[in-house]
Amino acid sequence: MTGSFSFRIPYQRLTGIAGLLFIFILWYVQGVSAKSAGNHLDLGLFNQRINAKAKVFVTTDGTVSAQKVFSAAFQPNFKPLPKRYFASSRATYWYLMDIRAVDLPDTGKWYVCFSYYDQITLYYQSGDSLATRTAGMFTRNNSEGVNDLSDIPFTHDELIDGRYLYAQIKHSSRKKLIVDPYYTSENSIQFYKEYSSRKFFLNQIPFYLFTGGVLLMFFYFIGFYFIYSDRLFIYYSLYLLALILYIGARAAFIQEEFRMALPHAIHIYNDVMQVFVNIFYLKFAQQVLNAKTDFPKLNIAIRYALTLLITIVAFQFAILVFKPFSAAGPFIIEFQRYFMIVFSLASYVYIIRHYKKKVVLYLVGGSLFYLSGALLALYLWEIKYMMLGTSIEVFIFSLILGYRTKLVEQEKKSIEAEMTQVKLTALKAQMNPHFIFNSLNSIRAYVISNETKKASDYLNKFARLIRLILYYSSRDFILLKEELETLRLYIELEQMRYRDDFGFELKISPAVDIGKCLVPPLILQPYVENAIGHGLAPKTGEKKLWLEIAKKDHSVVFAIRDNGVGRRFSKKVNHIKDQKHESMAMELTRKRINLAGENLSADNKIEIIDIEESGQSLGTEVRFKLPIQTT
Fold first, then answer.
1. Mind giving me the DSSP string for 42-88?
2. The whole model's pTM is what?
Protein backbone atom coordinates (compact mmCIF):
# COMPACT_ATOMS: atom_id res chain seq x y z
CA MET A 1 0.00 0.00 0.00
CA THR A 2 1.28 3.46 -0.88
CA GLY A 3 2.51 5.35 2.15
CA SER A 4 2.78 2.28 4.35
CA PHE A 5 5.88 1.36 6.25
CA SER A 6 7.29 -2.09 6.89
CA PHE A 7 10.53 -3.51 8.21
CA ARG A 8 11.82 -6.85 6.91
CA ILE A 9 14.87 -8.75 8.12
CA PRO A 10 15.73 -12.48 8.03
CA TYR A 11 15.25 -12.67 11.80
CA GLN A 12 14.62 -16.44 12.17
CA ARG A 13 17.51 -17.49 9.94
CA LEU A 14 20.00 -15.00 11.40
CA THR A 15 19.02 -15.81 14.99
CA GLY A 16 19.16 -19.56 14.37
CA ILE A 17 22.58 -19.60 12.69
CA ALA A 18 24.12 -17.19 15.24
CA GLY A 19 22.70 -19.17 18.14
CA LEU A 20 23.86 -22.56 16.86
CA LEU A 21 27.33 -21.23 16.07
CA PHE A 22 27.53 -19.65 19.54
CA ILE A 23 26.58 -22.92 21.28
CA PHE A 24 28.96 -25.03 19.15
CA ILE A 25 31.97 -22.78 19.78
CA LEU A 26 31.21 -22.61 23.51
CA TRP A 27 30.89 -26.41 23.71
CA TYR A 28 34.10 -26.98 21.73
CA VAL A 29 36.20 -24.51 23.72
CA GLN A 30 34.93 -25.86 27.02
CA GLY A 31 36.02 -29.31 25.88
CA VAL A 32 39.46 -28.01 24.93
CA SER A 33 39.70 -26.14 28.24
CA ALA A 34 38.76 -29.20 30.25
CA LYS A 35 41.30 -31.32 28.36
CA SER A 36 44.02 -28.73 28.78
CA ALA A 37 43.24 -28.40 32.47
CA GLY A 38 44.82 -31.79 33.06
CA ASN A 39 48.04 -30.93 31.24
CA HIS A 40 51.08 -30.07 33.37
CA LEU A 41 52.85 -26.90 32.33
CA ASP A 42 56.59 -27.15 32.94
CA LEU A 43 57.66 -23.67 33.86
CA GLY A 44 60.40 -24.61 36.30
CA LEU A 45 60.54 -22.38 39.34
CA PHE A 46 57.52 -20.45 38.08
CA ASN A 47 55.25 -23.51 38.33
CA GLN A 48 55.91 -24.55 41.91
CA ARG A 49 52.56 -25.54 43.37
CA ILE A 50 52.62 -28.28 46.02
CA ASN A 51 49.52 -29.64 47.76
CA ALA A 52 49.79 -29.18 51.53
CA LYS A 53 48.15 -32.53 52.43
CA ALA A 54 46.68 -30.78 55.45
CA LYS A 55 44.59 -32.40 58.14
CA VAL A 56 41.61 -30.65 59.68
CA PHE A 57 39.89 -30.48 63.04
CA VAL A 58 36.33 -29.14 63.10
CA THR A 59 34.73 -27.73 66.23
CA THR A 60 31.64 -25.74 67.16
CA ASP A 61 32.98 -25.23 70.70
CA GLY A 62 34.18 -21.67 70.94
CA THR A 63 36.13 -22.40 74.14
CA VAL A 64 38.79 -24.57 72.45
CA SER A 65 42.04 -22.60 72.82
CA ALA A 66 44.91 -22.35 70.36
CA GLN A 67 47.37 -23.71 72.97
CA LYS A 68 45.27 -26.86 73.34
CA VAL A 69 45.03 -27.33 69.57
CA PHE A 70 48.82 -26.93 69.14
CA SER A 71 49.75 -29.53 71.76
CA ALA A 72 51.25 -32.83 70.60
CA ALA A 73 48.55 -34.75 72.51
CA PHE A 74 45.83 -33.06 70.44
CA GLN A 75 47.20 -34.01 67.00
CA PRO A 76 45.22 -37.31 66.76
CA ASN A 77 42.05 -35.17 66.59
CA PHE A 78 43.13 -33.88 63.15
CA LYS A 79 41.71 -35.96 60.29
CA PRO A 80 42.31 -36.01 56.51
CA LEU A 81 40.12 -33.58 54.62
CA PRO A 82 37.00 -35.16 52.96
CA LYS A 83 36.64 -34.72 49.18
CA ARG A 84 33.43 -32.62 49.31
CA TYR A 85 33.03 -30.81 52.58
CA PHE A 86 31.13 -27.52 52.84
CA ALA A 87 31.84 -24.88 55.42
CA SER A 88 29.33 -24.24 58.19
CA SER A 89 28.84 -20.78 59.65
CA ARG A 90 28.70 -22.30 63.14
CA ALA A 91 32.01 -24.16 62.91
CA THR A 92 35.69 -23.28 63.26
CA TYR A 93 38.17 -25.21 61.09
CA TRP A 94 41.73 -25.83 62.28
CA TYR A 95 44.33 -26.87 59.71
CA LEU A 96 47.44 -28.81 60.61
CA MET A 97 50.10 -28.62 57.90
CA ASP A 98 53.23 -30.78 58.20
CA ILE A 99 55.94 -29.34 55.95
CA ARG A 100 57.99 -32.54 56.14
CA ALA A 101 55.07 -34.53 54.73
CA VAL A 102 55.52 -32.79 51.37
CA ASP A 103 59.30 -32.31 51.38
CA LEU A 104 59.10 -28.55 50.76
CA PRO A 105 62.51 -27.15 49.62
CA ASP A 106 64.17 -24.95 52.23
CA THR A 107 64.70 -22.01 49.89
CA GLY A 108 63.55 -18.45 50.64
CA LYS A 109 59.99 -17.29 51.20
CA TRP A 110 57.00 -19.52 50.51
CA TYR A 111 53.25 -18.91 50.53
CA VAL A 112 50.49 -21.14 51.85
CA CYS A 113 47.53 -20.51 49.59
CA PHE A 114 43.97 -20.95 50.84
CA SER A 115 40.61 -20.59 49.14
CA TYR A 116 38.72 -17.31 49.52
CA TYR A 117 37.44 -17.79 53.05
CA ASP A 118 35.98 -15.02 55.19
CA GLN A 119 38.66 -15.12 57.91
CA ILE A 120 42.04 -16.90 57.84
CA THR A 121 44.54 -16.83 60.71
CA LEU A 122 47.95 -18.48 60.20
CA TYR A 123 49.92 -19.35 63.35
CA TYR A 124 53.74 -19.48 63.10
CA GLN A 125 56.81 -19.40 65.34
CA SER A 126 58.33 -16.02 66.07
CA GLY A 127 61.30 -16.41 68.41
CA ASP A 128 60.09 -18.10 71.58
CA SER A 129 56.40 -17.28 71.07
CA LEU A 130 53.63 -17.81 68.56
CA ALA A 131 52.56 -15.08 66.18
CA THR A 132 49.76 -14.73 63.62
CA ARG A 133 49.16 -13.41 60.15
CA THR A 134 45.59 -12.72 59.04
CA ALA A 135 43.90 -12.78 55.66
CA GLY A 136 40.43 -13.36 54.24
CA MET A 137 37.55 -11.71 52.40
CA PHE A 138 36.00 -10.27 55.55
CA THR A 139 39.19 -9.62 57.48
CA ARG A 140 39.30 -5.86 57.79
CA ASN A 141 43.12 -5.61 57.82
CA ASN A 142 45.10 -8.31 56.05
CA SER A 143 48.64 -8.73 57.34
CA GLU A 144 51.59 -7.29 55.45
CA GLY A 145 52.74 -9.49 52.60
CA VAL A 146 49.41 -11.29 52.10
CA ASN A 147 48.64 -11.79 48.41
CA ASP A 148 45.15 -11.83 46.90
CA LEU A 149 43.41 -11.96 50.32
CA SER A 150 44.26 -15.65 50.70
CA ASP A 151 48.00 -16.33 50.14
CA ILE A 152 50.00 -15.94 53.38
CA PRO A 153 53.81 -15.84 53.36
CA PHE A 154 56.13 -17.86 55.67
CA THR A 155 59.72 -19.09 55.88
CA HIS A 156 61.18 -22.31 57.26
CA ASP A 157 62.46 -20.37 60.29
CA GLU A 158 58.83 -19.72 61.26
CA LEU A 159 57.69 -23.35 61.41
CA ILE A 160 56.34 -24.52 64.77
CA ASP A 161 58.55 -27.27 66.17
CA GLY A 162 60.55 -26.90 62.95
CA ARG A 163 57.88 -28.58 60.80
CA TYR A 164 54.29 -27.39 61.43
CA LEU A 165 51.98 -24.57 60.48
CA TYR A 166 48.51 -24.13 61.96
CA ALA A 167 45.63 -22.16 60.50
CA GLN A 168 42.20 -21.23 61.81
CA ILE A 169 39.40 -20.81 59.24
CA LYS A 170 36.01 -19.19 59.74
CA HIS A 171 33.51 -18.84 56.94
CA SER A 172 29.86 -17.80 57.14
CA SER A 173 29.09 -15.55 54.19
CA ARG A 174 28.38 -18.04 51.37
CA LYS A 175 28.35 -21.75 50.59
CA LYS A 176 32.00 -22.79 50.29
CA LEU A 177 33.97 -26.00 49.94
CA ILE A 178 36.69 -26.61 52.51
CA VAL A 179 39.64 -27.57 50.33
CA ASP A 180 43.27 -28.50 50.81
CA PRO A 181 45.62 -25.49 50.69
CA TYR A 182 48.80 -25.58 48.65
CA TYR A 183 52.30 -24.10 48.83
CA THR A 184 53.83 -21.96 46.17
CA SER A 185 57.08 -20.02 45.91
CA GLU A 186 57.58 -16.28 45.95
CA ASN A 187 58.79 -16.53 42.34
CA SER A 188 55.49 -18.12 41.29
CA ILE A 189 53.46 -15.43 43.04
CA GLN A 190 55.43 -12.68 41.30
CA PHE A 191 55.30 -14.45 37.94
CA TYR A 192 51.51 -14.97 37.94
CA LYS A 193 50.94 -11.36 38.91
CA GLU A 194 52.36 -10.41 35.52
CA TYR A 195 51.59 -13.41 33.30
CA SER A 196 48.89 -16.04 32.74
CA SER A 197 49.45 -19.67 31.90
CA ARG A 198 48.03 -21.33 28.82
CA LYS A 199 45.83 -23.45 31.06
CA PHE A 200 44.46 -20.36 32.81
CA PHE A 201 43.83 -18.62 29.49
CA LEU A 202 41.98 -21.59 27.99
CA ASN A 203 39.83 -21.90 31.08
CA GLN A 204 38.76 -18.28 30.66
CA ILE A 205 37.80 -18.52 26.97
CA PRO A 206 34.28 -19.90 27.68
CA PHE A 207 33.57 -16.84 29.83
CA TYR A 208 34.68 -14.50 27.06
CA LEU A 209 32.67 -16.38 24.43
CA PHE A 210 29.60 -16.53 26.62
CA THR A 211 29.80 -12.84 27.46
CA GLY A 212 30.42 -11.83 23.84
CA GLY A 213 27.65 -14.05 22.47
CA VAL A 214 25.03 -12.97 24.99
CA LEU A 215 26.10 -9.32 24.63
CA LEU A 216 25.55 -9.62 20.86
CA MET A 217 22.07 -11.03 21.51
CA PHE A 218 21.40 -8.20 23.97
CA PHE A 219 22.10 -5.47 21.40
CA TYR A 220 20.23 -7.45 18.75
CA PHE A 221 17.01 -7.65 20.74
CA ILE A 222 17.25 -4.21 22.34
CA GLY A 223 17.22 -2.95 18.75
CA PHE A 224 14.08 -5.01 18.13
CA TYR A 225 12.44 -3.30 21.10
CA PHE A 226 12.99 0.13 19.56
CA ILE A 227 11.64 -1.15 16.24
CA TYR A 228 8.56 -3.01 17.50
CA SER A 229 7.91 -1.32 20.90
CA ASP A 230 7.04 -4.75 22.31
CA ARG A 231 7.73 -5.16 26.04
CA LEU A 232 8.66 -8.79 25.41
CA PHE A 233 11.90 -7.62 23.76
CA ILE A 234 12.88 -5.25 26.57
CA TYR A 235 12.29 -7.90 29.25
CA TYR A 236 14.35 -10.42 27.28
CA SER A 237 17.12 -7.86 26.76
CA LEU A 238 17.19 -7.11 30.48
CA TYR A 239 17.29 -10.85 31.17
CA LEU A 240 20.32 -11.19 28.86
CA LEU A 241 22.00 -8.22 30.54
CA ALA A 242 21.46 -9.78 33.96
CA LEU A 243 23.02 -13.05 32.69
CA ILE A 244 26.07 -11.12 31.46
CA LEU A 245 26.46 -9.35 34.79
CA TYR A 246 25.98 -12.59 36.72
CA ILE A 247 27.82 -15.29 34.72
CA GLY A 248 30.05 -13.19 32.48
CA ALA A 249 31.33 -11.21 35.47
CA ARG A 250 32.75 -14.45 36.90
CA ALA A 251 35.64 -14.25 34.47
CA ALA A 252 38.84 -14.34 36.54
CA PHE A 253 40.18 -10.87 35.70
CA ILE A 254 36.81 -9.25 36.58
CA GLN A 255 36.46 -11.23 39.79
CA GLU A 256 40.03 -10.40 40.82
CA GLU A 257 39.55 -6.66 40.37
CA PHE A 258 36.19 -6.75 42.12
CA ARG A 259 37.56 -8.89 44.97
CA MET A 260 40.49 -6.58 45.65
CA ALA A 261 38.41 -3.39 45.43
CA LEU A 262 35.28 -4.51 47.33
CA PRO A 263 35.92 -7.84 49.05
CA HIS A 264 32.91 -7.38 51.35
CA ALA A 265 30.52 -6.70 48.47
CA ILE A 266 31.47 -9.31 45.88
CA HIS A 267 29.25 -12.04 47.31
CA ILE A 268 26.34 -9.64 47.74
CA TYR A 269 26.78 -8.59 44.10
CA ASN A 270 26.73 -12.19 42.84
CA ASP A 271 23.67 -12.97 44.95
CA VAL A 272 21.74 -9.88 43.91
CA MET A 273 22.50 -10.43 40.22
CA GLN A 274 21.30 -14.02 40.54
CA VAL A 275 17.98 -12.73 41.87
CA PHE A 276 17.75 -10.15 39.05
CA VAL A 277 18.23 -12.97 36.53
CA ASN A 278 15.19 -14.68 38.03
CA ILE A 279 13.15 -11.46 38.15
CA PHE A 280 13.65 -10.64 34.46
CA TYR A 281 13.16 -14.29 33.51
CA LEU A 282 9.73 -14.27 35.20
CA LYS A 283 8.75 -10.99 33.50
CA PHE A 284 9.83 -12.41 30.14
CA ALA A 285 7.94 -15.65 30.77
CA GLN A 286 4.86 -13.67 31.76
CA GLN A 287 4.87 -11.96 28.36
CA VAL A 288 5.58 -15.10 26.31
CA LEU A 289 2.83 -17.04 28.08
CA ASN A 290 0.36 -14.15 27.82
CA ALA A 291 -0.17 -15.24 31.40
CA LYS A 292 -2.80 -12.67 32.31
CA THR A 293 -5.20 -14.12 29.72
CA ASP A 294 -4.08 -17.71 29.06
CA PHE A 295 -2.74 -18.67 32.51
CA PRO A 296 -4.52 -16.39 35.03
CA LYS A 297 -3.72 -18.55 38.08
CA LEU A 298 -0.06 -18.83 37.09
CA ASN A 299 0.00 -15.07 36.49
CA ILE A 300 -1.05 -14.47 40.10
CA ALA A 301 1.62 -16.91 41.30
CA ILE A 302 4.29 -15.12 39.22
CA ARG A 303 3.28 -11.77 40.72
CA TYR A 304 3.71 -13.16 44.22
CA ALA A 305 7.05 -14.69 43.24
CA LEU A 306 8.23 -11.35 41.84
CA THR A 307 7.23 -9.61 45.06
CA LEU A 308 9.25 -12.15 47.04
CA LEU A 309 12.33 -11.75 44.82
CA ILE A 310 12.21 -7.95 44.99
CA THR A 311 11.97 -8.21 48.79
CA ILE A 312 15.05 -10.46 48.80
CA VAL A 313 17.00 -7.89 46.76
CA ALA A 314 16.04 -5.15 49.22
CA PHE A 315 17.04 -7.41 52.12
CA GLN A 316 20.44 -8.09 50.54
CA PHE A 317 21.13 -4.38 50.15
CA ALA A 318 20.12 -3.82 53.76
CA ILE A 319 22.61 -6.51 54.85
CA LEU A 320 25.37 -4.87 52.80
CA VAL A 321 24.71 -1.47 54.40
CA PHE A 322 23.94 -2.42 58.00
CA LYS A 323 25.47 -5.85 58.64
CA PRO A 324 27.82 -7.05 55.89
CA PHE A 325 29.15 -9.99 57.92
CA SER A 326 25.72 -11.44 58.65
CA ALA A 327 25.11 -15.16 58.07
CA ALA A 328 21.45 -14.43 57.23
CA GLY A 329 22.31 -13.41 53.65
CA PRO A 330 23.53 -16.85 52.51
CA PHE A 331 20.49 -18.51 54.10
CA ILE A 332 18.10 -16.19 52.22
CA ILE A 333 19.88 -16.79 48.90
CA GLU A 334 19.88 -20.56 49.45
CA PHE A 335 16.14 -20.36 50.13
CA GLN A 336 15.70 -18.30 46.95
CA ARG A 337 17.55 -20.92 44.87
CA TYR A 338 15.44 -23.83 46.06
CA PHE A 339 12.25 -21.78 45.90
CA MET A 340 12.91 -20.97 42.22
CA ILE A 341 13.69 -24.62 41.45
CA VAL A 342 10.41 -25.81 43.00
CA PHE A 343 8.40 -22.89 41.58
CA SER A 344 9.82 -23.42 38.08
CA LEU A 345 9.14 -27.17 38.02
CA ALA A 346 5.59 -26.68 39.31
CA SER A 347 5.01 -23.95 36.71
CA TYR A 348 6.25 -26.16 33.87
CA VAL A 349 3.86 -28.95 34.88
CA TYR A 350 0.99 -26.45 35.03
CA ILE A 351 1.88 -24.99 31.61
CA ILE A 352 2.09 -28.42 29.94
CA ARG A 353 -1.31 -29.36 31.35
CA HIS A 354 -3.08 -26.12 30.37
CA TYR A 355 -1.25 -24.70 27.32
CA LYS A 356 -3.21 -23.37 24.34
CA LYS A 357 -0.36 -22.39 22.02
CA LYS A 358 2.54 -24.69 21.22
CA VAL A 359 5.04 -21.82 21.33
CA VAL A 360 4.91 -21.89 25.15
CA LEU A 361 6.45 -25.38 25.04
CA TYR A 362 9.62 -23.78 23.65
CA LEU A 363 9.71 -21.63 26.77
CA VAL A 364 9.46 -24.76 28.94
CA GLY A 365 12.13 -26.58 26.90
CA GLY A 366 14.61 -23.70 27.00
CA SER A 367 14.00 -23.17 30.70
CA LEU A 368 14.66 -26.84 31.45
CA PHE A 369 18.08 -26.60 29.78
CA TYR A 370 18.90 -23.58 31.95
CA LEU A 371 17.60 -25.31 35.08
CA SER A 372 19.59 -28.48 34.31
CA GLY A 373 22.78 -26.47 33.82
CA ALA A 374 22.16 -24.51 37.02
CA LEU A 375 21.58 -27.70 39.05
CA LEU A 376 24.73 -29.33 37.66
CA ALA A 377 26.72 -26.18 38.45
CA LEU A 378 25.25 -26.11 41.96
CA TYR A 379 26.02 -29.71 42.85
CA LEU A 380 29.19 -30.30 40.80
CA TRP A 381 30.58 -26.88 41.66
CA GLU A 382 31.42 -26.08 38.03
CA ILE A 383 30.00 -22.94 36.41
CA LYS A 384 30.64 -24.16 32.83
CA TYR A 385 27.55 -26.40 33.02
CA MET A 386 25.41 -23.36 33.73
CA MET A 387 26.98 -21.46 30.84
CA LEU A 388 26.23 -24.33 28.45
CA GLY A 389 22.64 -24.70 29.67
CA THR A 390 22.11 -20.96 29.47
CA SER A 391 23.51 -20.83 25.92
CA ILE A 392 21.03 -23.45 24.72
CA GLU A 393 18.23 -21.61 26.51
CA VAL A 394 19.22 -18.30 24.88
CA PHE A 395 19.11 -19.97 21.46
CA ILE A 396 15.64 -21.46 22.08
CA PHE A 397 14.28 -18.20 23.48
CA SER A 398 15.63 -16.40 20.41
CA LEU A 399 13.52 -18.72 18.26
CA ILE A 400 10.48 -17.72 20.31
CA LEU A 401 11.19 -14.05 19.66
CA GLY A 402 11.76 -14.75 15.97
CA TYR A 403 8.35 -16.42 15.85
CA ARG A 404 6.82 -13.48 17.72
CA THR A 405 8.32 -11.08 15.18
CA LYS A 406 6.91 -13.14 12.32
CA LEU A 407 3.43 -12.93 13.85
CA VAL A 408 3.75 -9.15 14.21
CA GLU A 409 4.71 -8.80 10.55
CA GLN A 410 1.81 -11.03 9.47
CA GLU A 411 -0.59 -9.00 11.62
CA LYS A 412 0.65 -5.81 9.98
CA LYS A 413 -0.04 -7.25 6.51
CA SER A 414 -3.51 -8.35 7.63
CA ILE A 415 -4.31 -4.89 8.98
CA GLU A 416 -3.09 -3.23 5.78
CA ALA A 417 -5.33 -5.50 3.67
CA GLU A 418 -8.34 -4.93 5.91
CA MET A 419 -7.77 -1.17 5.82
CA THR A 420 -8.14 -1.20 2.04
CA GLN A 421 -11.42 -3.09 2.24
CA VAL A 422 -12.80 -0.88 5.00
CA LYS A 423 -11.88 2.26 3.07
CA LEU A 424 -13.93 1.11 0.09
CA THR A 425 -16.89 0.29 2.32
CA ALA A 426 -16.66 3.67 4.05
CA LEU A 427 -16.70 5.51 0.74
CA LYS A 428 -19.76 3.53 -0.32
CA ALA A 429 -21.46 4.68 2.91
CA GLN A 430 -20.78 8.29 1.81
CA MET A 431 -19.00 9.05 5.07
CA ASN A 432 -17.02 12.23 5.64
CA PRO A 433 -13.87 11.65 3.53
CA HIS A 434 -11.81 13.67 6.05
CA PHE A 435 -12.92 11.36 8.85
CA ILE A 436 -12.05 8.30 6.72
CA PHE A 437 -8.65 9.76 5.86
CA ASN A 438 -7.88 10.67 9.47
CA SER A 439 -9.01 7.30 10.79
CA LEU A 440 -6.92 5.35 8.29
CA ASN A 441 -3.93 7.55 9.06
CA SER A 442 -4.41 6.85 12.77
CA ILE A 443 -4.48 3.11 12.11
CA ARG A 444 -1.37 3.41 9.95
CA ALA A 445 0.40 5.40 12.70
CA TYR A 446 -0.31 2.59 15.16
CA VAL A 447 1.07 0.05 12.67
CA ILE A 448 4.23 2.08 12.04
CA SER A 449 4.83 2.42 15.79
CA ASN A 450 4.25 -1.36 16.08
CA GLU A 451 1.20 -0.93 18.31
CA THR A 452 -0.59 -3.62 16.33
CA LYS A 453 -3.07 -4.42 19.09
CA LYS A 454 -4.26 -0.82 19.16
CA ALA A 455 -4.31 -0.72 15.35
CA SER A 456 -6.43 -3.86 15.24
CA ASP A 457 -8.78 -2.50 17.92
CA TYR A 458 -9.15 0.80 16.05
CA LEU A 459 -9.78 -1.00 12.76
CA ASN A 460 -12.42 -3.27 14.31
CA LYS A 461 -14.27 -0.30 15.82
CA PHE A 462 -14.00 1.64 12.55
CA ALA A 463 -15.42 -1.28 10.55
CA ARG A 464 -18.22 -1.72 13.07
CA LEU A 465 -19.10 1.99 12.84
CA ILE A 466 -19.28 1.76 9.05
CA ARG A 467 -21.58 -1.27 9.23
CA LEU A 468 -23.89 0.57 11.65
CA ILE A 469 -23.97 3.65 9.41
CA LEU A 470 -24.77 1.53 6.36
CA TYR A 471 -27.50 -0.25 8.28
CA TYR A 472 -29.11 2.83 9.83
CA SER A 473 -28.79 5.14 6.83
CA SER A 474 -31.60 3.33 5.02
CA ARG A 475 -34.06 3.93 7.88
CA ASP A 476 -36.03 7.07 8.70
CA PHE A 477 -35.87 6.58 12.46
CA ILE A 478 -33.86 4.48 14.89
CA LEU A 479 -34.02 3.99 18.63
CA LEU A 480 -32.20 6.61 20.69
CA LYS A 481 -30.31 3.72 22.28
CA GLU A 482 -28.97 2.74 18.83
CA GLU A 483 -28.09 6.35 18.04
CA LEU A 484 -26.12 6.66 21.29
CA GLU A 485 -24.35 3.35 20.64
CA THR A 486 -23.21 4.60 17.22
CA LEU A 487 -22.20 7.98 18.67
CA ARG A 488 -20.21 6.39 21.51
CA LEU A 489 -18.33 4.24 18.96
CA TYR A 490 -17.52 7.37 16.95
CA ILE A 491 -16.29 9.22 20.04
CA GLU A 492 -14.11 6.24 21.09
CA LEU A 493 -12.48 6.32 17.64
CA GLU A 494 -11.83 10.03 17.96
CA GLN A 495 -10.39 9.53 21.45
CA MET A 496 -8.02 6.88 20.09
CA ARG A 497 -7.08 9.17 17.20
CA TYR A 498 -6.28 11.99 19.62
CA ARG A 499 -4.57 9.53 22.02
CA ASP A 500 -7.17 9.97 24.80
CA ASP A 501 -6.71 13.72 24.57
CA PHE A 502 -10.25 14.54 25.76
CA GLY A 503 -12.88 13.11 28.08
CA PHE A 504 -16.54 12.41 27.42
CA GLU A 505 -19.52 12.45 29.76
CA LEU A 506 -23.09 11.38 28.92
CA LYS A 507 -26.06 12.38 31.10
CA ILE A 508 -29.53 11.00 30.35
CA SER A 509 -32.59 12.08 32.28
CA PRO A 510 -34.56 9.20 33.84
CA ALA A 511 -37.61 10.62 32.10
CA VAL A 512 -36.16 9.68 28.70
CA ASP A 513 -36.63 6.02 27.72
CA ILE A 514 -33.81 5.46 25.21
CA GLY A 515 -35.15 1.98 24.46
CA LYS A 516 -38.45 3.38 23.08
CA CYS A 517 -37.67 6.92 21.93
CA LEU A 518 -37.11 7.31 18.16
CA VAL A 519 -34.76 9.82 16.47
CA PRO A 520 -33.45 10.34 12.92
CA PRO A 521 -30.24 8.30 12.40
CA LEU A 522 -26.88 10.02 12.94
CA ILE A 523 -28.54 13.26 14.04
CA LEU A 524 -25.98 13.97 16.79
CA GLN A 525 -22.71 13.00 15.08
CA PRO A 526 -22.12 16.18 12.98
CA TYR A 527 -22.37 18.42 16.06
CA VAL A 528 -20.10 16.14 18.08
CA GLU A 529 -17.62 16.04 15.19
CA ASN A 530 -17.66 19.84 15.02
CA ALA A 531 -17.12 20.16 18.78
CA ILE A 532 -14.14 17.81 18.71
CA GLY A 533 -12.49 19.09 15.54
CA HIS A 534 -13.00 22.84 15.98
CA GLY A 535 -13.51 23.26 19.70
CA LEU A 536 -11.33 20.71 21.51
CA ALA A 537 -8.57 19.87 19.03
CA PRO A 538 -6.96 23.37 18.96
CA LYS A 539 -7.07 23.68 22.75
CA THR A 540 -4.28 22.86 25.20
CA GLY A 541 -4.88 21.60 28.71
CA GLU A 542 -7.89 19.71 30.00
CA LYS A 543 -10.50 18.96 27.34
CA LYS A 544 -13.96 17.55 27.80
CA LEU A 545 -17.14 16.90 25.85
CA TRP A 546 -20.60 16.62 27.41
CA LEU A 547 -23.86 15.30 25.98
CA GLU A 548 -27.03 15.81 28.01
CA ILE A 549 -30.44 14.41 27.08
CA ALA A 550 -33.54 15.57 28.89
CA LYS A 551 -37.32 15.67 28.45
CA LYS A 552 -39.28 18.90 28.27
CA ASP A 553 -43.01 18.87 27.64
CA HIS A 554 -43.45 16.76 24.51
CA SER A 555 -39.87 17.13 23.30
CA VAL A 556 -36.48 15.55 23.84
CA VAL A 557 -33.83 18.21 24.42
CA PHE A 558 -30.23 17.53 23.34
CA ALA A 559 -27.33 19.65 24.63
CA ILE A 560 -23.82 19.13 23.21
CA ARG A 561 -21.21 21.13 25.13
CA ASP A 562 -17.43 21.39 24.98
CA ASN A 563 -14.87 23.40 26.93
CA GLY A 564 -12.90 24.18 23.75
CA VAL A 565 -11.57 27.37 22.20
CA GLY A 566 -14.95 28.76 21.15
CA ARG A 567 -16.31 29.82 17.76
CA ARG A 568 -14.39 33.10 17.36
CA PHE A 569 -10.98 31.51 17.88
CA SER A 570 -11.96 28.50 15.76
CA LYS A 571 -12.89 30.75 12.85
CA LYS A 572 -9.50 32.50 13.04
CA VAL A 573 -7.64 29.18 13.05
CA ASN A 574 -9.73 27.51 10.36
CA HIS A 575 -10.45 30.44 7.98
CA ILE A 576 -8.07 29.09 5.35
CA LYS A 577 -9.39 25.51 5.57
CA ASP A 578 -11.92 24.05 3.20
CA GLN A 579 -15.17 24.16 5.13
CA LYS A 580 -17.31 22.86 2.25
CA HIS A 581 -17.97 19.43 3.70
CA GLU A 582 -18.52 20.71 7.27
CA SER A 583 -20.92 23.39 6.09
CA MET A 584 -22.84 20.90 3.96
CA ALA A 585 -23.06 18.37 6.78
CA MET A 586 -24.25 20.98 9.30
CA GLU A 587 -26.79 22.36 6.82
CA LEU A 588 -28.18 18.88 6.05
CA THR A 589 -28.45 18.14 9.77
CA ARG A 590 -30.21 21.47 10.36
CA LYS A 591 -32.76 20.62 7.65
CA ARG A 592 -33.32 17.16 9.11
CA ILE A 593 -33.92 18.66 12.57
CA ASN A 594 -36.32 21.21 11.10
CA LEU A 595 -38.23 18.51 9.26
CA ALA A 596 -38.39 16.30 12.34
CA GLY A 597 -39.55 19.20 14.54
CA GLU A 598 -41.83 21.00 12.11
CA ASN A 599 -44.50 21.31 14.78
CA LEU A 600 -42.14 23.23 17.09
CA SER A 601 -41.62 27.00 16.96
CA ALA A 602 -38.68 28.04 14.80
CA ASP A 603 -36.92 29.87 17.64
CA ASN A 604 -36.61 26.79 19.73
CA LYS A 605 -35.30 24.30 17.21
CA ILE A 606 -31.48 24.87 17.15
CA GLU A 607 -29.57 27.18 19.48
CA ILE A 608 -25.78 27.74 19.53
CA ILE A 609 -24.45 29.33 22.72
CA ASP A 610 -20.96 30.80 23.23
CA ILE A 611 -19.98 30.13 26.83
CA GLU A 612 -17.84 33.05 28.07
CA GLU A 613 -16.62 34.57 31.30
CA SER A 614 -14.95 38.00 31.52
CA GLY A 615 -14.52 37.98 27.76
CA GLN A 616 -12.73 34.63 27.78
CA SER A 617 -14.25 31.75 25.86
CA LEU A 618 -15.04 28.67 27.97
CA GLY A 619 -16.50 26.61 25.14
CA THR A 620 -19.59 26.19 23.02
CA GLU A 621 -22.98 24.58 23.54
CA VAL A 622 -25.44 23.42 20.87
CA ARG A 623 -29.05 22.81 21.89
CA PHE A 624 -31.95 21.47 19.84
CA LYS A 625 -35.27 19.75 20.37
CA LEU A 626 -36.96 16.84 18.69
CA PRO A 627 -40.56 15.81 19.23
CA ILE A 628 -41.01 12.65 21.26
CA GLN A 629 -41.75 9.69 19.04
CA THR A 630 -41.91 6.18 20.44
CA THR A 631 -42.18 2.67 19.12
1. --GGGG-EEE---EEEEE--TT--HHHHHSGGGGGG-EEPPSS-B--
2. 0.58
